[in-house]
Amino acid sequence: MADQFDHDVELDARGMACPIPLIQTKLMLNSMQSGEVIKVIATDAGTVRDFQTHCRLAGHEVIKQTEEGPLILHWIRRG
Fold first, then answer.
1. DSSP one-letter string for 8-76
2. CA separation (Å) from 55 to 2, 15, 29, 60, 69?
3. Average model confidence (pLDDT) for the chain?
4. DSSP character for 5?
């Protein structure tokens, strides 16, 4: 698993089912400074849609979302 972007915080949400990855990500984003990036490693396919929707509504930026086998990697910049 190669890091494709620099990040300030990493959250391992493997094996967590909806809505836990989103809740954990929201909590971490709330503790971060504007402009910082979180990398989330997830296995729940619903995180792709959940993170896009949350970021659009909350003013954060989904930098990239990729799949590597069973893993879904998300990089989100706090707004």
1. SEEEEETTPPTTHHHHHHHHHHHTSPTT-EEEEEE--THHHHHHHHHHHHHT-EEEEEEEETTEEEEEE
2. 24, 22, 10, 4, 24
3. 94
4. S
- For residues 74 and 43, the answer to whether their CB atoms sit within 8 Å is no
CATH number, domain with residue 15: 3.30.110.40
Task: Judge whether 63 lies within some domain.
Answer: yes
Number of domains the chain contains: 1
Q: Which of 9, 18, 28, 41 is catalytic?
A: 18
If you average pLDDT over residues 9-38, what whole number do you get? 96
Q: Is 55 a catalytic residue?
A: no
- The first and second tokens of residue 10, run together, are 């990493």
pLDDT attached to residue 5:
75
> What pTM was estimated for this model as a whole?
0.92
